[in-house]
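Session log. Operator J.P. requested a structure for one protein chain; no other inputs attached. Running the standard single-chain path with C-alpha cell output.
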Amino acid sequence: MHLLCTADGRLRHFSSPRSLPPGERYAILSHVWSDDGEQSFQELKALIESGGSLRKASAKVREFCRFARSQGYHWVWIDSCCIDKTSSAELSEAINAMYRWYADAHVCYAYLADVSDQEDPRRVSSTFRRSKWFTRGWTLQELIAPRFLVFLSKTWTVIGTKSSLARTIEEVTGVDRDVLTFAKPLEAVSVARRMSWAAGRQTSRLEDEAYSLMGIFGVYMPTIYGEGYNAFVRLQEEILRHISDQSLFVWGEESTSLTPLILSPRPPPKGFPAHDLSSRNALEILQTPLIFGQCHTTNWRRGWELSSFRCLDTRIQVMASARNYPSLGFPLALRLPEGYTWLSWLAKTTTDVSWPSFCARG
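Structure written below.
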C-alpha cells in the first residue's frame, strides 16, 4: 500500500499496514468523491516530484493532511490518491485488501462534505442523517471495519464518533448497533442480514456493487471491470464457498415478479431474462444483487441466526421449521403459485447446496 506523508505530501510504499516504522500509525479517510473528480495518484506524485508542496494539492488532500498532522499522524491513506489505478494489479490488490486496511488503521476519519457542525446530528431533521455518505456502496465497509471512526463536518470539525452516534447510525443505515460497537462479531450476522445493509446504496460502477461487499463477507476475488452483473454472481458463489449460511437464498422485498433489480440502482439491461417461478432457476443465484432490503432476523433456540423474509412474489412464503435438526440444518419450503412445494434440506455444516430433485403437490 502507498501512504501519504502529512508533512511533505510524498507517497511511500509499504508492504503492509504493519510494516510502518515502530511506534508509527496511519489514519485513513472515508469520503464521498466529488462530482468534479478527485486528485489522482499520478497527479499528486507529479506535483510533489516537480518541487510542489501540499499547499498546491487539492483542498481535500491538503485539509486532511493538515487535520491528521494536528492529531499526531505522520502517515495517511486516501483511496483517491494512494492507489495507482493505471495498474490493474495494484487496483485489484487494493480493492481486495481495503476492508483490512480500514480495520488496521489507528483511526478512520469520515469527512461529510454536506454536514454542518452547527446542529445536533441526532436530530431527526439533521444534515448528518441525510448525508450522501450513508448512501454510497463503498462507505458501508468503511463504516463497519474501523474500530475507531470519527465523523468530521464540512469544516473539518469533529461532530461525533461511531460509538457516540451508534444509535443514530443504526436508525439511518440499519446496521446493528452491536456490530458498530464491536459487541457482536460481523461473522455472527447472517448473510442475508448483511446484504440488507447494502440495499439501496449506490456505486458509480456497476461492478462495485459486488466488489464493495467482499470485505463484509470476508471473501476475495479478482476484479474485472466490464463484467457487469456477473460480478455479483461471482460474489454469491464465493460467499457460498466460504460461509455455510443459505440465507443467501431467501429474499426480502415485495415485488410482482422475479425480474432482477435489487441492490442495483439501475434497471436491468433490455432483454435481460426474468426467471420462471415454476422452474428450478427460481431457486438459484440470480444475475443481479438480490433484494434483501427489508429483512429481519430471529434467533433460533440453538443460537443460530436465521433470516425471515417475504419473497419476491407476495404469493411465495418462506418457512423454516422450529424443530431442531442438528445434522441437517432446517427444512425450507417454498410455496409456488402453481400449488407446488419445493422441499430442500439445507445443511448447516456445508456450503454445498443440493436443490430439490422432486416437488410435492400441495
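Operator note: Residues 88 and 223 are 9 Å apart (CA to CA).
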